[in-house]
Design a protein that fits this description.
The chain is of the alpha+beta class. The chain contains 4 helices and 6 strands. It has a single domain, classed as Nuclear Transport Factor 2, Chain: A (Roll). 36% of the residues lie in helices and 43% in strands. Strands 2-1-6-5-4-3 form a 6-stranded mixed β-sheet. It is globular and about 45 Å long.
Length: 145
């Protein structure tokens, strides 16, 4: 049921995108939002649709994961997000590439750890391939604020 709802959401986004000519920045913002919602309610199929096969996903602790490892970490609860709030988001588009920066605040409960919070500054690179924006690279650093 959960996968069906997420699949339906992806289809609706595609249908809406066909009938409503959203700007690339709006499309990227929607992809970022769906990615974050999927981090809170992990769904492997949605993650696979939203990420590039050559994804490089950098965590604030220096860990770097590829697409397969990143998705597994989210789906298994190694990295578990209870809620995510973004602020100060900026999106720059150049051709089929988007650069996204934002401040990421989340309540977490990673496997084997106590619940906590994290505040990060995040850089994402998205690429539009086959009509779909996919996360190509992400790097986070701890925020001093």
């Amino acid at each position: 049921m959960k996968k069906s709802l997420m699949s339906l959401a992806l289809i609706l986004i595609g249908v809406i995108g066909c009938s409503y000519q959203a700007t690339p920045a709006v499309e990227v913002a929607q992809a970022v939002e769906l990615f974050n919602k999927t981090m809170v309610k992990p769904d492997q199929a949605v993650f696979e649709q939203l990420t590039s096969p050559i994804l490089t996903y950098g965590h604030s602790n220096g860990l770097i994961e590829d697409q397969k490892t990143c998705i597994a970490s989210m789906v298994t609860g190694k990295f578990k997000f209870l809620s995510i709030d973004l602020s100060e988001q900026r999106i720059l588009i150049e051709g089929n590439t988007a650069i996204v920066r934002h401040v990421f605040f989340a309540h977490t409960h990673d496997a084997g750890k106590e619940p906590g919070t994290v505040k990060l500054k995040v850089l994402q690179v998205w690429q539009k391939t086959g009509g779909t924006w996919r996360l190509l690279a992400r790097q986070a650093v701890k925020s001093d604020d």
